[in-house]
Amino acid sequence: MNFDLTEEQAMIRTLIRDFAEAEVAPGAVERDRTGTFPVDIFEKLAKLGLMGLPFPEQYDGGGADTICFAIVVEELSRVCASTGITYSAHVSLGGSPIYLFGTEAQKKQYLAPLCRGDYLGAFGLTEPDAGSDAGGTRTTAVRKGNGVGDGDGDGSGSGSGSGGREGWVISGSKCFITNASYAKHLALTAVTDRAKGTSGISAFIVPTDAPGFSIIDNYEKMGLHASNTTELVIDQVEVPFDNLLGTEGNGFKQFLAVLDGGRIGIGAMAIGIAQGAFERALRYAKQRKQFGRTLSSFQAIQFKLADMATQIDAARTMVYRAGWLKDQGRPFKKEAAMAKLLASEICMKVCDQAVQIHGGYGYMREYEVERFMRDAKLLEIGEGTSEIQRMVIAAQLGC
């Protein structure tokens, strides 16, 4: 069993660590304060050829593996979690659905621009009434014109006002969608036949500038202030039949597969945030003096730091293992859920202890660990809550 990084993985780590320190870290505090989206950073990542890192070169991707992707997410998140989640969502939620389920024509039309970094990727899944219960999707897609069968959606919106074009007419809303303001197209889920339950959910590629498609960016969030989190309003939006992604009625299964890969990204993000908080706590403990001694000389603080380092290393090993299994073409659903669960919960614990080690200063923005703690909380919620991860794991155990 070889735990060494490959030559390519080590090269990617060096490249992205240097980039993160030089280009991402300097503005992280200001971006958190103002909520300014880091457009320039992603333009530079595109020039480095990292925006399509794990996708094949034939679609202008980097041809790298999942571990390389995880390393990039980890290193970006170590200095700025807003940048880390933007990158992770771009690849795992924006690009992966098209790569996994798109036709060759769809990959060339929609995946290649994402890999080049022409715009960011996004995925419309969560709804106001369909969070953990994603099978409760209410957004509908109704056929208009020729096509096999006639999906009944929810019995409404049968194409009124859709002119003479044939295709799908989509109506509904989505919430908590990452990157949508900077996407030109995104994949989203909609009900095509409500009578079939989750087997009546399909996925579509939808242009964000289509008539009736609105993006609302006004959330006030606890953390990740420089990431783009939006609502989508879809009012009788028309797309051609060719914009169906994958097989009609398979949308539910498709997005579950997408989330399996996305959880590796969230796990990597958790490692990065935890590592960043730990490094600040270790540095502070070595410098801060109390009772005539540095904090790091007290056994109570040493034990905290030892536990933090151990937990981060354990989480990293699990995330990389899930990525390795994915790259080997082996089942990884359980391992991805385990990695995401462990890494996200460890991240919160590490950030909590980093604040504790800083004492009163940890509560102040100047020392940054409070930012890491605010950013970390989403990881126990997004791409499946910790409770959902436990349900996924239990199901894989045959419970």
What does this structure look like?
The protein has 399 residues and is α+β, with helices and mostly antiparallel strands. The chain is 48% helix and 14% strand. The protein has eleven helices and ten strands. It has helices at residues 7-24, 28-34, 39-47, 66-79, 81-101, 104-116, 251-287, 299-327, 333-358, 369-376, 386-396, and strands spanning 123-124, 140-144, 167-178, 185-191, 201-207, 213-216, 229-239, 244-245, 289-290, 293-294. The strands form three sheets. The protein has a four-stranded mixed sheet with strand order 1-4-5-8. A four-stranded antiparallel sheet has the order 2-3-7-6, with helices on one face. Helix 7 runs antiparallel to helix 8 (299-327). This is Alkylation response protein AidB-like acyl-CoA dehydrogenase. Residues 122-237 form the Acyl-CoA oxidase/dehydrogenase middle domain. Pfam families: Acyl-CoA_dh_1 (PF00441), Acyl-CoA_dh_M (PF02770), Acyl-CoA_dh_N (PF02771).
